[in-house]
Recover the amino acids of this structure.
């Protein structure tokens, strides 16, 4: 009698081995995500550094070399500083620096004071129009600033502030919603029990703000100073419109001296751009941690 062999059945792999392909796929996806993250960061760095390198190359070239070479061509002489010397001579850098510093100090100080007091009132006081005031601040950010000049310009002229430093100082004192938001987030992290304890000791709202609230806002103050200061330092439109006199030129408008109807001296403009970038770059490198700490601390409190 012939016997038929039973079919061979392959045994299933143990459970740990069945999970190996899934684990490998998960690891592969993680590596791809990390690679894409670093590629995107490299792309962002490349996009940010290329314009700076082009400006730096142009600032070190002579007029003839700039006309005969491309923007990505490095300069033949890396120690050609004639453009920087001419820029300092023709742009009156020292006078522009004084005007910029005068406007910057008063504007930033006023913004910190007004913004912190407004945030204190909106956070600590409960009144009927509180929501409306916050909504109006938000609506104001949606209006392009250039459209407001139709009403602002005649007002500045009637006040007698046109072609003076005080025109830009007054316009810069307007506290933006970003400053108020930063201060409000920090004030929310300050316990109200401190206010109540000070009130029991006889302190009024001014004393509470000056002696308790304001000293605790140092990270927020540093953040607002950096953000507002860089904005005012780089602002070109406001001083160009309200301070046309050459004696009142600031650092941002000093570049317009080298541009005219018949052409622009791009090698001198590039040298000026490099000079203008140095203060903001140094300020950001030394104080960048205050910006990050200010936003992160304010958002988590």
């Amino acid at each position: 009698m012939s016997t038929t062999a039973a079919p061979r059945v392959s045994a299933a792999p143990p459970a740990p081995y069945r999970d190996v392909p899934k684990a490998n796929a998960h690891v592969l996806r993680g590596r791809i995500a990390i690679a894409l993250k670093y590629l995107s960061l490299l792309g962002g760095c490349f996009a940010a550094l290329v314009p700076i390198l082009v400006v730096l190359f142009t600032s070190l070239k002579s007029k003839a070399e700039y006309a005969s070479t491309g923007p990505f061509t490095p300069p033949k002489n890396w120690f050609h500083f004639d453009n920087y010397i001419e820029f300092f001579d023709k742009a009156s850098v020292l006078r522009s620096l004084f005007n910029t510093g005068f406007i910057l100090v008063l504007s930033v100080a006023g913004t910190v004071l007004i913004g912190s007091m407004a945030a204190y009132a909106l956070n600590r006081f409960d009144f009927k129009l509180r929501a409306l005031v916050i909504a109006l601040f938000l609506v104001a950010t949606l209006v392009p600033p250039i459209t407001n000049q139709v009403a602002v310009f005649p007002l500045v002229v009637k006040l007698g502030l046109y072609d003076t430093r005080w025109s830009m100082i007054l316009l810069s004192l307007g506290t933006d919603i970003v400053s108020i938001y930063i201060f409000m987030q920090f004030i929310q992290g300050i316990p109200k029990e401190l206010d109540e304890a000070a009130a029991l000791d006889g302190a009024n709202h001014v004393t509470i703000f000056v002696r308790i609230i304001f000293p605790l806002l140092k990270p927020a103050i540093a953040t607002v100073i950096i953000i507002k200061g860089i904005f005012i330092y780089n602002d070109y439109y406001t001083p160009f419109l309200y301070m046309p006199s050459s004696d009142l030129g600031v650092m941002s408008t000093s570049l317009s001296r080298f541009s005219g109807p018949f052409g622009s001296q791009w090698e001198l403009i590039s040298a000026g751009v490099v000079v203008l970038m140095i203060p903001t770059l140094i300020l950001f490198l030394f104080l960048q941690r205050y910006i990050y700490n200010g936003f992160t601390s304010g958002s988590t409190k």
Summary: Strands lie at 259-260, 263-264. The mean pLDDT is 81.
